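dumping this here before i forget
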Amino acid sequence: MSSESLPGIPTAADFCALASSSPWRFTTVHLTHRCLQDNGSTPIGGPVEVWLDRGAGRLTVRSGAGVETAEGVPYGTAVSLVSCNDHDGDGGAVCAVQPSRDTGVVLRPDGLVAQRPEGWHYDHGDPMWRDYQFTAMLDPAELSQGVEVSDVVATVLRGRPTWSATCRPLLEEDEEWGGGYDPRCGCCPLLLSPASLIFEYGPEDPALTTGEVPTVYCVHLDVQTGVVVDITPLDGIGGSSLTNVIHAVDEPLDPPL
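structure:
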């Protein structure tokens, strides 16, 4: 999907919309993925090369240990698009869902997602490699709510347009986890933090007593795809830290067998 209509000066709402939009922004991607430690300064193991084909529902990963393939339900066959028009002339979008096999996604006039179908990733998530942080990295919808987003900047990282933001996972406001950070999986969140630890293990988790768990991160989203391309803790010790270098988007894939 073209990025030409996106805002040149993105807001926190725009960043959250991009974080929700990955399933509707690309079909194939080829990238190199690295996990890091020491707040982003030291690689953990070697990089892995990744080929994701959502149309075929197939993920291929090549590491030093060899080639692995995972398969799952593709996104592309379950997407419904909408058309938006400004009928009243004041900038408000009027969106009409176009018929398809799965309705529910509503797009903004600029093509980003205004509303995702509830529970989308349960039935349509990308194939998983290693843990749920990997799939959340490819579709980072968990950054779109329960996270305080600030300092959004349009920038370029490793040669590709990105939106960066300061992201602070929020603690819950009530017993139903209202307003709190709700990661896809609490044991492997995109943003390891007191909020994610309490979500998964409760307030008694011993890691919370050290005061070393990061509370705020800098996150870069690739504008074309919505994929996370960098996570760096801004405080604490350890936490989530990763990079992705995107080589090609929506081009024919040639993964190893």
